[in-house]
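Handoff note, outgoing to incoming analyst
You'll be picking up this chain. Sequence as last confirmed:
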Amino acid sequence: MSTRRSQTIEPAFHWGLVRTRAGHNPRILWLHKWSKKVFTSFIGSRSGAVKRNCGGVIPKNRDIPGCVKRFVLMGFCLWIVGFVFGPAEVRADDRFQKLDKGEVLISRHKSKLGYDKVKALAIIKAPPAKVWPTFDKCGNYKNSMLRVASSKELSRKGGVVRCEIVIAMPFPIKNLRTVTDAVHTAKPGKFYKRKWNLVEGDFKVNRGSWTLRPYKDGTQTLLTYLVVAEPNIPVPQFIRRAAQNKTLPELIEHIRKRVARGL
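Most recent structure output, in case you need it:
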C-alpha cells in the first residue's frame, strides 16, 4: 500500500473497517516470523529448544519441563497473533475495492443488551460537506430517507437536535413513531457526525449514528452507519435482517442520487 493510500484511508481504521494496521506494521510481521520460527524449531528438535531455554540442561525423563511449556505456549500464542493480524492490510484492500465498486458492506453483532447492532459502510462520491445536510436536516427525512412516513424537527439547541420520525412499516404492521435527541458534530476536514438516542416512542431501544469522513483526498465520503433498534412490537429477527439487507443498499443509493442532484 502506498503512503498516499495509507493516509487517505487512515480514518477508516479508527472506525472499525479493520481493527488494526498490523498488516502494515513491521514489528508485528517480525513478531510473527520470529514466533513461528521458534515454535517450529521446538517441534523439530525438542532437545535443542530445551537447551536454549532451560539453562542448557536436557531432562532425561520424558516430561517436558515447565519452562519449555511456557516457551511453547508463548511462541504459539505469538504465532497466532501474527497469523490473525498479519493479513489485515490484505483484508482492508479487499474491502476498499468493494467499496470503490459501489458496494454497501453490512455487518452485525450483538450489543451488550443482546440486540442486533447493525453496521453499514459505503462511499458517496461527493465531499462530506456536501453530503452532511442530508443528515443534519431531520425535518426533511421524509424526502431524504426511505420508509419515513413523516418527520419533524422539534427543537435545536446548540448541537442537540430533537426529532420526531414516523417510520413506515409494511402491512399489517403499524407505523412506528420515535422521538430522539441527536448530537450533531461538524468538524470540516475531519468528520461530521449525527449520534442519536431514544427519548420516547414505539421502541425499547433506538440509538445509532451516521458518520461522514473524508475519502480519496476529501473528494469523496466514507459513510458509516451504526444502529441498535428494537421495536416494542414483535418482529421476527429473520424478517428484520432481510429487510435491512434490502433497504440499506437502497437507502445508500437514494442518498447518492440526491447528493448528485444537489438536493
